[in-house]
Amino acid sequence: MTREQRSWHVKKCAEYKHEYPTYKIYASTLESILKAICRTAAPLAIVQSRPKAVASFAEKMARKAAQYIAENTSPTDLCGARVIAETQAEVDRVCALIRATLTIDEANSPDIRTRLNLTEFGYLSVHYVIQLPPAGTILGVPIPAEIGERKAEIQVRTLLQHAWADISHDRIYKSSFKVPANLKRDLARVAAFLEEADSRFGAAIRAIDNYKLHYGAYMNAERLKEEIDILKTVIDNEDEKSRAALRLAAIYRSTADWTAVASILAPFLSLEDPEILAEHGHALCHQPKLFQNGLQQIEQALPLAQGDLRTRILAYRAWASSRLPNNERETRDFYRAAYQAAPTNPFHMAAYVEYEIFCGEPLGFLSSVMQPVFLQAIRTCRAYIDAGIELPPAFLTIGRFNLLLGRYGESLAAYAAAIPLCLPIKGALEAEVLFVDRINRAKEPPEEHAWVRDLLLLALNHPSKPAKQTPYKNPVVILAGSTSTTPQKLIDDNLLRAFKGFTGAIISGGTPVGIPGIAGQLGKTIPAEIIGYLPQDKTAEPHYTELLRTSNADFSFREPLQYWTDLLAAGISPTEVKLLGVDGGPIAAFEYRIALALGATVAVLEPATRAAADLAKDPDWNTHPKLLRLPNDAMTLRAFVNPPQPVLTPEQVESAAERIHADFLQTNRYKNPDAAMQPWNDLRDDLKESNRMQAKRAIEFLTAAGLTVVRKSGKIPLPKLTPKQIDLMAEMEHGRWVVERAQSGWQYGPERDPTNKRSPYLAPWNQLTPQIKGYDREAVKLWPKVLAEAGLAVFPNKK
To answer: Cβ distance 275 to 301 under 8 Å?
Structure first.
């Protein structure tokens, strides 16, 4: 250093020692302001501040004396602060609030990220040189007058950017020696890994936050109540009450309890938090008398928000616009803004496209041009579904895009999957009905679009088509499957045996071939009502007692929609309907899914093929509690289609069930550690119910074997059962047991595995070993004795 530089250095160091206490105050004030900013923008961010140490100041001034003297400048980082956020999205929100709150020295605040070439990786951070106002407060933090016009430097980074800066950048940039090129290359590779990891962390955290935003939708009623109680306690006892309030509001939002959402957030409106303002306003917009107040709050929140939150608020603003009459163009513009802000968000895209078409964009042209984008949106929604998040919007959006692309079967399947999730809150289904109307510009939609609309209206119990006032007999069974002319003879024989004596209603396709043809053949032998649904000009099976034709030229998705329309019009609850599915193509696939969606029980015959096999493997349906997989066994199918007949009183059922279980224990005790090997009082409820069902069915099976059951007092003689009667009742009891197990979630497996609900005995009667058949034979032999103890006598029928 020259003598002049040394003199300058001594002077500057003396001045800074005098200034140092003021910079300590500056650092403390700046830290408080940044913590206030982070409370909304990045709640878990690390905030650090410090005045530059006197020794560090002295070294910096010595190394850069020539530069500072020549430029007549001083360092701007004598007070420094650092915000270390979790993700880049949080960094962006913090930066936006810093710009909105503090005075930025733009000339000295370059974005360091822009210094890197496209092929480079390295130090990524945002630097601001700022000044505080001379007096007053910022976010409730008083500004000491002695700070004056002094400047400070703020760095904003992610956690991984901070790791790079501390471990690598400072060792290169601040080093007093030249770092070899090979070491720089090694560190650059590490920087590339860190940059990729930062991006992936951000994506994962966005997905988790997205889940948290809607996590109330994935809870049952008991879990919802528990979570609500916990969060109410947190709000009462936590300093950061507003964060807990937003989480609680998210739960109430998932149940469409908009009054509760508004009530929870109202105490925090004074914080001027854009998220609280927007969520409170959105809740008010769902209440007609408070709509204008809600709209005003959403508009207040919009300029205050950044990043993902701003996009969400744009969507809220668009939704609010859609509530106003003749306001489709403004709605379109807000949805467009949301889509442009987040072009990979499939929900904003779907809403924007809906209004773009309504406002004049040709549907065919848009679907053609946007096909790759629509397909990618479908894949994104599928990824959400596989992760268990964004349900049901992901299913509804898949339904929309498939409809726009003309993939009608896929569209109907997606909407069917959404229906059970939407039934507690039907507003989402009503919005989809409006979607179909809007993309057809309020004109009568084409037949394919009408299928989707009518499915949604069925779920809402507002069918759009006139219904036949058919007096259906109970129980109602839908027989669905292939219309091929070559169903296996074994299926024919088993179905004919299964429906023997059936007195309810059988609905099928009405054609004389395939599985529907079997339904028609049943009309020759059983007293059931056989109802067929056919398009016009098709040949019907002559043994259908009533034929209901649709207006189609050929079989389509219209026939299943029509028979469900008729069932609902006749007052039949879907929960009382059963569907038996064998094989089948696209229409049968839709029949299976619409039945499950509306609440019916569906059984597919194993070994399943084609549409039935696809259903059993479909991740959206294969764990549905009302989807059963039944072996191709006549008595199993009979037990499925025929409900138990109420013959015994509840007291008699309970007494008989206890005795059946006692005999079971006596025969099987200690043979395995099964949960069924417990005394009656310690037995699980589902296993008690199994014994009760056996008691209820016993009279039905005895009657089928040619025996009569009557009430009798006094001593009751026991009949001698023939081997043929025992075999028939044992086969029927096995079928009953298989259906009961299937309804409890059990499936066939080569080894018995109670933990995973697998059993080798869920098989047709003719495939069981003599030993397993023997268990059922021994059980049915005891029925006359069990019933006698309940005051019922069993006699052979008189010839």
So the answer is: yes
